[in-house]
Structures are given as structure tokens and as C-alpha cells.
Design a protein that fits this description.
Elements lengths: L32 H22 L5 H30 L1
Helix pairs in contact: 1-2
Length: about 90
Amino acid sequence: MNQPLPGPRPTPGPVPGPRPTAPLDESAHTVDPDEIRRQVSELLEQADDIAAAVGDTADSEALARLARQAHLLEKAHAVLTDALEKVDRA
């Protein structure tokens, strides 16, 4: 009678109808450019203070300060990236 054929079964193709959409991110509408500028400016100011304090020395304290400066710059980058992602989703 009707017996299945041996071998792999075909995978189902696209199904007609509406596609699910990602939920809207309400925080995308709350991107405040002034707040982003304030956060980044504050982080960059702290990084500049560290750079000024380090000067041309290369001792362990200076290296720790440079590591802190790198961390602050990464945080500033994250703030800007997050803001751009929110604006893109809006």
C-alpha cells in the first residue's frame, strides 16, 4: 500500500501569511541626545584627566591609569553604540 519512501524527508518551505515581527523597543524612543553627549563628555573628560596625570612615565601606577583610561573609552564607545542601535530600531 502507501509506505513511506526511505531517505530523508523534505523540510517544510516558507508558509504563506504574515511574518512575526520583533517587539518594538520602547526605549528607542527615549534616546536623549543631550544625555548621550553628557555621558560621553564625562567619560572622555575622565580619560583626559588620566592621560594628563600619566604623562611620559611608564611605571606600574601609570599603566594602571592607562588601563582605567582604556576602560572609560570603551564605556564611551558602548554608550554611543547603544544609542545608535536604539535609533536604528526606531
